[in-house]
């Protein structure tokens, strides 16, 4: 190998480093990051909780943005200095439209502070979103041959193996982040004297690895499981297959340890679609695929309605109740003269006065204004029950809140605190410790509250927000600020007070809120373009080639992510892997189309054949033409020699 060839190969491999780091090693980053959430200005966030500490998101975000800048620099340098032309396909127009709406949503956002910095417990600002798209396009441009594909998967796989190993150890109760060594590794030196206070509150045996939220594992291992299966099929060597089997088992352990039902559902759905694509390759097999689909639908219906397992899965997907039918407290009104609580269909009016001796006297009335008697239920806490069967689950208690008189109303054991003010009458003392007028959150009734592990409630409260984000969204990473966080019923009955919905638990709903409907449609269009094109390719391509199975595995991985995204969110832990695999899948598809001459139109084929025939005719005629030229040349030479002979004879006569 010459020095120039070796140098060029080395430079080409160097171009893969940002891809490998983004896909393989960014998800590994875990380290302490202190920041000001800047949310104390909102009524629903505690004033004393401005300073927050993050371990799993902030430094990943910073690494993603830095690598995004590096990739832009490389592309600009090679375009301006090396005069290299970018590769392109029509689907990137959709990605460009999506990027445009991401930019416009950020530009016109009312929450620019968080759009550019990231938000509490998420850290996916506009720069990170742009970096994802840059990664996809960068991979498409600079991964141009099968060796490069294998190199990316091999070296990124090292980082993925480390992420997986940490998750497996957590599953078996050996959580590295609960050890002294692990705590030293992920904290600042200034925190080392407080290591005993560090606890991530994960249940024993739960896999969350370096991704923080067990739900995120449905994305990460949902992609790896089908990819590894396809790499196993395409592998040629025994040791490669053995290593892939071990990796597959470890990934399955991690997904099981996450406890994510949505992950298994996405893998099953993705696998079913992938199998149908393979069956559609043969005419007879298409009928088999159709029969399997029909049998699967019938079998699912039977299992869902006749077995306890099927019933559990059905209830997980569809849910079992609406909130107003499940809980007795349906509404609260903080008025000037009283607080009215709607208990089932009965209105309970509660108010209080302060007697001359300083005691708090509580007055309860029904909807007709009739006073209701009270019985002391607990002398120590001065808690009273109401002497009315309609309010048998209600108790009231006089309370002092920082030298301010108030009352607590207990409904089904949950405390609701109220204070009478001089200016605004009765106000609700919310879990953040702030007095507010109680406002009922608007929500749809489309989903049952516990559908998809209580995602139904979050989706119901998100849907009313969608209407104002048809054209542009609220800006990247601002769902937390757009979705009403004063959903105190949801906090009380579902996910706990002072817990906030920082994400929609549906990537597409969150994109609609943050990027707008048109931007979301452009993103979906880009993803569907890749999926449909992949289906067309893998129905035709030669699957005896290793590269074909790599491409099919990447297609299956992207497919699982897109399905899992219905119940999960984009995040800096898993999105770099997804966008990298998407770009890699597009690059492999391009290689296969070129290599196997796919999708060439009949007229193009005929034109090519005619061109080849013309070339062949010219080649066949070439010897004849050459002989003619030679004869002409010989003739000219003979004529010239005759002329010279004549001249010589004339000169001799003279």
Description:
This protein is an alpha+beta fold and 654 residues long. 56% of the residues lie in helices and 11% in strands. It is elongated, with a radius of gyration of 35 Å. Mean pLDDT is 89; it is low at 602-609 and 618-631.
The number of strands is: 13
Report strand %. 5-15%
So what's the overall shape? elongated
Mean pLDDT: 89
Termini separation comes to: 72 Å
Classify the secondary structure makeup into a structural class. Answer: alpha+beta
Count up the helices.
22
Low-confidence stretches: 602-609, 618-631
Walk across the major sheet and give the strand order.
Answer: 7-8-9-10-11-12-13
Give the helices and strands, then pairings.
Elements: H1 3-14, H2 17-25, E1 33-36, E2 51-54, H3 58-80, H4 91-107, H5 112-117, H6 126-142, H7 146-171, H8 180-186, H9 217-234, H10 238-258, H11 261-279, H12 283-306, H13 308-318, H14 323-326, E3 329-334, E4 339-343, E5 346-354, E6 360-365, E7 374-378, E8 383-386, E9 394-401, E10 404-411, E11 414-421, E12 425-429, E13 435-436, H15 451-466, H16 479-482, H17 488-495, H18 507-515, H19 517-538, H20 546-564, H21 575-596, H22 602-653
Antiparallel strand pairs: 1-2, 3-4, 4-5, 5-6, 7-8, 8-9, 9-10, 10-11, 11-12, 12-13
Helix pairs in contact: 2-7, 2-21, 3-6, 4-6, 4-19, 6-21, 7-10, 9-10, 9-11, 9-20, 11-20, 12-13, 13-15, 18-19, 19-20, 19-21, 20-21
What keyword list fits this structure?
22 helices, single chain, elongated
Could you give a short description of this structure?
The protein is an alpha+beta fold.
């Amino acid at each position: 190998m010459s020095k120039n060839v070796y140098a060029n190969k080395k430079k080409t491999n160097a171009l893969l480093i940002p891809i490998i780091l983004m896909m393989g090693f960014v998800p590994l980053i875990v380290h302490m990051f202190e920041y000001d959430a800047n949310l104390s200005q909102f009524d629903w966030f505690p004033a004393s909780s401005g300073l927050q500490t993050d371990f799993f998101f902030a430094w990943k975000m910073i690494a993603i943005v830095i690598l995004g800048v590096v990739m832009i620099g490389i592309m600009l340098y090679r375009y301006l200095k090396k005069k290299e032309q970018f590769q392109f396909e029509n689907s990137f127009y959709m990605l460009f439209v999506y990027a445009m709406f991401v930019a416009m949503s950020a530009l016109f956002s009312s929450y620019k502070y968080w759009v550019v910095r990231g938000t509490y417990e998420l850290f996916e600002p506009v720069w990170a979103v742009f970096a994802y798209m840059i990664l996809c396009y960068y991979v498409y441009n600079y991964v141009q041959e099968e060796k490069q594909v294998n190199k990316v998967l091999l070296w990124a796989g090292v980082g993925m193996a480390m992420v997986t190993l940490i998750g497996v150890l957590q599953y078996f109760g050996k959580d590295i982040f609960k050890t002294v060594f692990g705590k030293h590794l992920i904290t600042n030196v200034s925190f080392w004297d407080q290591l005993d206070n560090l606890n991530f509150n994960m249940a024993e045996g739960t896999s969350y690895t370096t991704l923080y939220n067990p739900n995120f594992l449905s994305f990460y291992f949902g992609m790896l499981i089908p990819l590894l299966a396809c790499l196993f099929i395409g592998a040629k060597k025994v040791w490669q297959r053995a290593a892939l089997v071990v990796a597959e088992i470890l990934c399955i352990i991690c997904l099981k340890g996450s406890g994510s039902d949505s992950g298994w559902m996405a893998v099953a759905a993705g696998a079913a679609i992938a199998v149908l694509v393979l069956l559609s390759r043969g005419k007879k097999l298409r009928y088999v695929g159709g029969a399997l689909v029909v049998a699967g639908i019938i079998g699912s219906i039977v299992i869902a309605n006749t077995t306890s397992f099927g019933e559990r899965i059905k209830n997980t997907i569809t849910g079992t109740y609406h909130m107003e039918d499940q809980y007795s407290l349906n509404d609260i009104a903080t008025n000037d003269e009283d607080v009215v609580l709607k208990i089932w269909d009965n209105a309970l009016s509660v108010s209080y006065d302060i007697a001359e001796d300083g005691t708090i006297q509580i007055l309860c009335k029904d909807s007709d204004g009739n006073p209701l008697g009270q019985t002391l239920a607990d002398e120590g806490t001065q808690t009273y029950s109401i002497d009315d069967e309609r309010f048998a689950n209600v108790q009231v208690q006089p309370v002092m809140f920082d030298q301010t008189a108030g009352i607590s109303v207990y409904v089904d054991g949950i405390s609701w605190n109220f204070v009478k003010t001089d200016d605004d009458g009765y106000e609700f003392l919310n879990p953040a410790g702030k007095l507010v007028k109680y406002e009922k959150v608007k929500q749809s009734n489309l989903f049952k509250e516990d559908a998809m592990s209580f995602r139904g409630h979050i989706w119901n409260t998100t849907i009313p927000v969608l209407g104002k984000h048809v054209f542009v969204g609220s800006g990247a990473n601002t769902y937390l600020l757009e979705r009403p966080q004063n959903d105190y019923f949801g906090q009380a009955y579902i996910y706990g007070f002072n817990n906030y919905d920082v994400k929609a638990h549906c990537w597409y709903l969150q994109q609609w809120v943050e990027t707008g409907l048109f931007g979301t449609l452009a993103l979906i269009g880009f993803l569907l373009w890749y999926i449909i094109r992949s289906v067309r390719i893998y129905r035709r391509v030669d699957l005896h080639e290793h590269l074909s199975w790599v491409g099919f595995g990447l297609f299956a991985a992207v497919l699982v992510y897109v399905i899992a995204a219905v119940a999960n969110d984009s995040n800096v832990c898993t999105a770099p892997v997804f966008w990298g695999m998407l770009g890699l899948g597009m690059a492999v598809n391009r290689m296969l189309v070129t290599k196997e001459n796919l999708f060439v139109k009949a007229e193009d084929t005929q034109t090519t054949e005619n061109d080849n025939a013309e070339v062949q005719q010219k080649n066949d005629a070439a010897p004849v033409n050459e002989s003619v030229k030679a004869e002409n040349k010989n003739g000219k030479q003979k004529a010239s020699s005759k002329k010279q002979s004549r001249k010589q004879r004339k000169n001799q006569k003279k």
